[in-house]
Each structure stands twice: as structure tokens, then as C-alpha cells.
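Table S4 entry, J domain-containing protein.
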Amino acid sequence: MVVDTAYYELLGISPSATAIEIKKAYRKKSIQEHPDKNPNDPTATERFQAISEAYQVLSDDTLRLKYDKYGKKEAVPTGGFEDAAEQFSAIFGGDAFSSYIGELTLLKNLQKTEELSAQDEAEKAKDEEGKTKDEVSKESKNEQSEHKSGTSTTLPNLRSKGESSQTVSTPSKKDETPKKKTKLELFEEEQRLEKEKSIEKLSNTLIERLSILTESVYDGACKESFQKKFVEEANLLKMESFGVDILHTIGAIYYEKASIFLASQNLFGFGGVFHSMKAKGGVFMDTLRTVSAAIDAQNTMKELEKMKEANETDVDGTPKPTVDDLAKQEQLLMGKVLSAAWHGSRYEITSTLRSVCDKVLEDKTVPTATLVRRGEALKLLGEVFLNVYRTKAEQEEAQIFEELVAEATKKKRK
């Protein structure tokens, strides 16, 4: 018996709602009541916070049980309720995929790499400048010393007849000090180790997921149950930002790697050659698309800069771009930047997942029969993710959210 139904009523669900139904209801209500969607309603922020609190309680099994038995007062999270805006961003922010693809660091690392590279160059230039000054100073002292002692005129007369008139130089000792690693090299080494740890963790998580089927009776009913479980999970994940694209990317890699492995178990291993060659072609195309998207964004940025310069400079006979023209170009640039960011992220996801799948399917510590089961389960999971799509209503809901997040990001920058 539920003593208080207020939180359920806020989300528009019954007290018997499942975890998936609670999350779906929160998504819908939080978008409807978001303050940015209701700028002229002074009570919107209050309603938005109340919806957030309801979700924070009902999405936590322990808090939900306390709420059902004792009401609101006994169902407060440790440390209090999170801010509604932060909760909103966390739910829609993309962390839901972390157990599949890990943390996406490519774009963040590119910026860090540029910073460290610039620092290393500055330090190198400083060192070179210091060395030049030392050499000039040393040379100047040597010249003064030679001039005072007269060695510059008497040295040739001290040589025996058989000696060459060329200056005899003493070979300097080789610098046996190991080369100091640059900041960039240290950072790259650190990132490589972090990537290895991440792939190890993701591999273990994937093995656990597949074990739901591989460690079962492994009949038709078990396979159907396995697919049903991940269809439900995929239906939640598809509502994340770029959710469908990420699911299709994961599904494609799972299906591809499983097909290559299973084919390699037949026809003396030759069955996987065709699939492997096809996969390599896919890697090349991914790289090409990533580079093309980045160049496209860069070109659009240059065009926008030219338009802004033309707007500031009074050039005879040349019409200045209007505010509307600049706004359209900025919007176009935002789309190109997002496209470049997505292609970069997709490239990183595919690279990570290929390594994870190799680790799962090439594990020498388990019998071949188990690896074959893993391959078959991985192929089934890939098919599930490849067949996920949003309904028209879900697509509109996701777009509304992405607009709200973009608007919130703009405000933070200001």
C-alpha cells in the first residue's frame, strides 16, 4: 500500500510503474515544464524542480521503498536533492553509454595536445636562446684569452714540421644523459595507459553482458529472452543525444567483429578474410569522413570570419552582410562543428570497440566453444542495436531536448 502518490501524480504514472516507465515519464514531463519552454510562467521553475525531486526519489529503489511506506519526509537523498538543471543535463547528457564505449576523450585530448605542444615549443625556444647566449659568451671569453696570451700568433710555430696546420680539436664526451621526455610525450604515454585500462574494463563488462546468454541453457527461449532484455535497454538509450547514431555504431562493430570471428572458424579460417577486408575498408572511410567533416567546419569558420571582417570594414560598392546573414552563417557553422564532433566521436567509438571485441573474442584462457558462443551472442546484440529507431514523437522529443541543451550551453558561455 502506497501512503503518498504525489510524486507518481507529478510524473503522470501509476505506483506500479517500472523503472523504464518512470524514466520515460520524467523525460516527457521535464521537457514540457522546462523553464526555457515556459518563459512567461513564473511557476515553471518550481514545477521543474518538483518533477526533478520526484524522479530522484522514484528512480532510486531504496528511496522509492521508503517513500511508498512513509511518504516524502523519509525519502530524501543523502546530501539533499540535486539541482533540477544539473539533474536534467545528467539524465540527457550521454553518460548512459559509458559502460559500452567508455569516456570519449579524443576531442578533449586534441585541445590538451595543442596546449602541451605549444608549451614544449616555447620551452625549446627558450632553451635554444639560452644555449646561444652561453656559446656567444664562451666564444667571447676564448677570444679575449687568446689575445692576451698571444696564442693566436705563436701556436703555429710550436707545431713540429710533420704536424698539420689545421686546428686540433679535442673530441667532446658524448652526452650520456637520457633525453628528457616532453610534456606532450608524457601526456601521450599517460593516455595510452588509461586507454588500456578502459579497454580492459569495457571487455570485462561486455563478457558479463554476453554471459547472460553464453552461460545459459542456450536454447531458443534463452536467445529470445536475451534479445528482449537488450531491446528494452536500447529503447532507453536511443533517447540520449545522438542515441540512435551511437547504438547503430555499436551494433555495426559488434555485428562486423562477430561475423569475422565466426567465419574464421569455418573453411580453415579463410571464411573471415572477406569480412576482414571489408572492415578495413570501413576504417579507411571512417577516417576520410572524419577529416572531411573537420575541413568542412574549418572552411565555414573562415567564411564567417571574412563576413565579420567585411561587416566591420567599409568597402566601396561591396554590400555588407546583414545581421540575418551572419546569424545564418553562425547557425551553419554550429551544424558543421557538431558534425565534425560527431565524426570524431564516432571514429573514437569504433576504434575502442574494435579493440574490446578483439579482446573478448580472442581470449586464450577460455575454450573455443565458449568463444563461439560469445561470437553468436555478440552478433545477436549487434542486430538488436542496428534495428533501433525512434518514432516520430520520440524524434521530436529528442530534438526539443537537444535545442534546450544547446541554449543552456550558450547561456553558460555568456
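Confidence is low (pLDDT under 50) at residues 151-169.
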